[in-house]
């Protein structure tokens, strides 16, 4: 690797603790507001196991499932809705900034505008249905929506989205230097939006986001296969590395608990 490629990896690794810390903090806030009674060791086991499991499960289901598992059957009911709100807050950022990116490049996309009109209309209907379902579930479980939790999750989701977007844009700029970093920052949200809509999420969306990135950039008139490498490097740093770390921490903590 040359100096800049080492600096590329260095920047991604430097931002990893912030990205990972925000994700863990969101889960801890969910545990706090759900008033789940778990000791610190059980929380560590649940989160470390979740980091390992999320590698092979769609989106954040691995982390959520692991925390629910650690909470136990009785306490998990009160935790389901805060964790759902956690995922909704992150998806909201994807829809919001993806829609902004779509507006910016509306006229530049080579596909017919009627298809993108349909996509935008579908996003609006989907968001309304999502809000209605969330409200309905809260009424069924008789749990009021906590404004403080919404604000905390929204803040951390926004910061995570900003960090991950910058990581992807920085890597894309290295492999696709004909576009400025600002251009990549404007396009990447559209990549996230399309990859979120595609109902495939196993193994951390590996292969999906790479194909979507190439396809979105191609629709905008920029064809560069180096985007596949950019996406893979970001995936390696943000998903595979934490999964390995989580698995090792889980094994270490589990053996300590047994002793």
UniProtKB/TrEMBL annotation:
Superkingdom of origin organism: Bacteria
UniProt keyword annotations, A-Z: Membrane, Transmembrane, Transmembrane helix
Transmembrane segment boundaries: 88-106, 118-134, 158-175, 187-208, 228-252
Protein name, per record: Flippase-like domain-containing protein
Originating organism: Luteibaculum oceani
Lineage: Bacteria, Pseudomonadati, Bacteroidota, Flavobacteriia, Flavobacteriales
């Amino acid at each position: 690797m040359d100096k800049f490629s080492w600096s590329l990896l260095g920047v991604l690794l430097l931002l990893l603790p912030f990205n990972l810390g925000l994700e863990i903090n969101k889960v801890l806030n969910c545990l706090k507001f759900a008033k789940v009674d778990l000791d610190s060791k059980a929380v560590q086991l649940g989160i470390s196991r979740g980091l390992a499991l999320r590698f092979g499960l769609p989106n954040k289901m691995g982390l959520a499932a692991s925390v629910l598992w650690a909470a136990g059957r009785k306490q998990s009911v009160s935790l389901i809705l805060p964790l759902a709100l956690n995922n909704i807050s992150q998806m909201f950022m994807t829809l919001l900034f993806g829609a902004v990116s779509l507006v910016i490049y509306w006229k530049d996309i080579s596909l017919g505008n009627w298809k993108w009109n349909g996509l935008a209309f579908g996003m609006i209907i989907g968001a309304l249905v999502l809000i209605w379902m969330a409200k309905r579930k809260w009424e069924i479980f008789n749990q009021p929506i906590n404004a403080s939790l919404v604000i905390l999750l929204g803040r951390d989701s926004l910061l995570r989205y900003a960090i991950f977007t910058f990581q992807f844009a920085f890597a894309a700029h290295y492999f696709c230097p004909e576009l400025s970093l600002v251009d990549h920052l404007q396009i990447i949200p559209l990549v996230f939006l399309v990859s979120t809509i595609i109902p495939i999420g196993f193994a951390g969306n590996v292969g999906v986001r790479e194909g979507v990135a190439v396809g979105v950039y191609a629709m905008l008139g920029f064809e560069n296969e180096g985007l596949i490498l950019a996406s893979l490097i970001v995936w390696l740093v943000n998903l595979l590395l934490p999964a390995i770390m989580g698995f090792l921490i889980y094994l270490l903590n589990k053996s300590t608990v047994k002793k």
